[in-house]
Design brief:
This protein has 407 residues and is an alpha/beta fold. It folds into three domains: 105 residues, Beta Barrel (OB fold (Dihydrolipoamide Acetyltransferase, E2P)); 156 residues, P-loop containing nucleotide triphosphate hydrolases (Rossmann fold), CATH 3.40.50.300; 52 residues, Ribonucleotide Reductase Protein R1, domain 1, CATH 1.10.40.50. The structure holds guanosine-5'-diphosphate and zinc ion (ZN). The site of guanosine-5'-diphosphate has 15 residues, from α8. Guanosine-5'-diphosphate binds next to α8.
């Protein structure tokens, strides 16, 4: 330990929480960090469950914070939650280290729905935590302790079978592109910070169902995710015949990739499309999602499967999502529920909003509450007769509006 540092024993504040504020977690955290003035100290929590009332704080007397760990503790380490396991979050730091993190109580207190305080995909700031090695009374730091502090000793993370250092999540960055699911009457965030959804469609076996594409696209619109269409098994289909279909989606500004996991056609373009982004793969069973993942990166689908199987033994089976890292940069988001896309409950009157090609016409309908089904003076229907909206898309709309466009 350097000379300008000393260790002090401080009483654990029992009530560090403040009345919850409605919206801004970040501001609350920062306010709290300032008021408790421990942001400059590297903290070693010796807690053994709730029994410990003391914690050891390694203080930097000069408050200059030059040490590496002090730096970590002052600013925290930034990382991405790659999966959530009960109360623990597995976080990958920006430098690639994996931590098993708990969530600071303050964050939990402020959340209205505990399950979504921290979720897969979240960008979080956390402090490394090293559980005590010596006795509670020891003030001098032993050499093994110091080493453990500088480089956290791998510990067996409960339930995960992973040797993982630990951390405490202090802050969650604002989310974008969330995948949610209605869980009872609450909305549960399954994955945060998803950039795009790769909609995998099989051209044959199972056969292409265009209305299903539209359903997936609507779901993507609703989730605020950019869709990418992967028309797979092109080796079994006639690309020329697909041109009208491809054209109609390209017209909507949706990237369409023709792929074959079998021959490798389109895989390089797919890798490019995934690079640096977080992508959810969705699509019916048998369309080739696993095969495409493996074509992009050998073994990728296997890790999807392994974790799904592990989760299937747990209590919260299908709610777990995880991020899988791509060697080329970026993440694939594996969410068992999203694959079948049964996540979004779309109300009939919402549906028009998820058909981006309808937008220019909706405002021109005679009745402001036009449902574009039976009404006179419907600009959408007129657009269909003039081929400004494809009749296929319109029929998909009708199916979704009447709630009949299911798989
Ligand atoms: P998933 O259920 O969406 O993950 O689909 P799989 O990846 O398990 O693939 C289902 C079946 O389709 C398997 O028998 C694959 O070998 C086959 N398959 C996947 N992609 C292709 C492809 O591009 N061309 C052909 N001919 N078969 C494919
Ligand atoms: Zn209308």
């Amino acid at each position: 330990m350097s000379k300008d540092k000393k260790k002090v024993r401080v009483e654990m504040r029992k009530n560090r929480t403040k009345p919850p504020r409605e919206n801004d977690l970040t501001r609350d955290y920062q306010a709290d960090a300032t008021s408790t003035d421990d942001s400059k100290a590297s903290e070693r929590v010796r807690a053994k469950g709730d029994l410990s009332r003391y914690r050891t704080v390694t203080q930097d007397d000069a408050n200059t914070g030059t040490g590496q760990l002090t730096g970590d503790a002052a600013e925290g380490i930034r990382g991405r939650v790659i999966r959530v396991h009960g109360l623990a979050s597995v976080v990958e730091a920006d430098d690639g280290r994996i931590f098993r993190c708990a969530i600071r109580r303050l964050l939990k207190t402020m959340a209205t729905d505990e399950r979504s305080v921290v979720t897969t995909g979240d960008v979080v700031w956390f402090r490394p935590v090293v559980t005590g090695v010596g006795s509670q009374e020891s003030v001098e730091e032993s050499e093994p302790e110091r080493q453990a502090r500088d480089k956290p000793e791998p510990r067996l993370a409960l339930g995960l079978g992973l040797p993982t250092p630990e951390g405490m999540i202090e802050r969650v960055e604002p989310r974008h592109g969330v995948l949610t699911r209605a869980s009872r009457r609450r909305e549960q965030v399954l994955v945060a910070n998803v950039d795009q959804v790769a909609i995998v469609i099989s051209l044959v076996q199972p056969t292409l169902k265009p209305h299903l594409i539209d359903r997936y696209l609507a779901a993507a619109e609703k989730g605020g995710l950019s869709p990418v269409l992967l028309l797979n098994k092109i080796d079994l289909a006639d690309a020329a015949q697909l041109q009208p279909l491809i054209g109609s989606y390209a017209q909507l500004g949706i990237p369409v990739l023709l792929t074959s996991a079998r021959t490798g056609v389109g895989i390089e373009r797919l890798r490019e499309q995934l690079r640096g982004r977080s992508t959810v793969f969705s699509g019916q069973s048998g369309v080739g999602k696993s095969s495409l993942l493996n074509a992009v990166q050998p073994g990728l689908a296997l890790s999807v499967k392994t974790v799904s199987e592990v989760n299937n033994k747990g209590r919260h089976t299908t709610t777990y999502a995880q991020l899988l890292k791509l060697e080329t940069g970026g993440w694939v988001v594996d969410t068992p529920g999203v694959r079948q896309l049964q996540l979004w409950d779309v109300r009939a009157e919402e549906v028009e909003g998820y058909f981006r090609d309808f937008r220019p016409f909706v405002a021109l309908c005679e009745f402001p509450d036009c449902t574009h089904t039976h009404e006179s003076g419907c600009a959408v229907k007129t657009a269909v007769t003039r081929s400004q909206i494809s009749s296929r898309r319109y029929h998909s709309y009708l199916g979704m509006f009447h709630g009949t466009a299911t798989e």
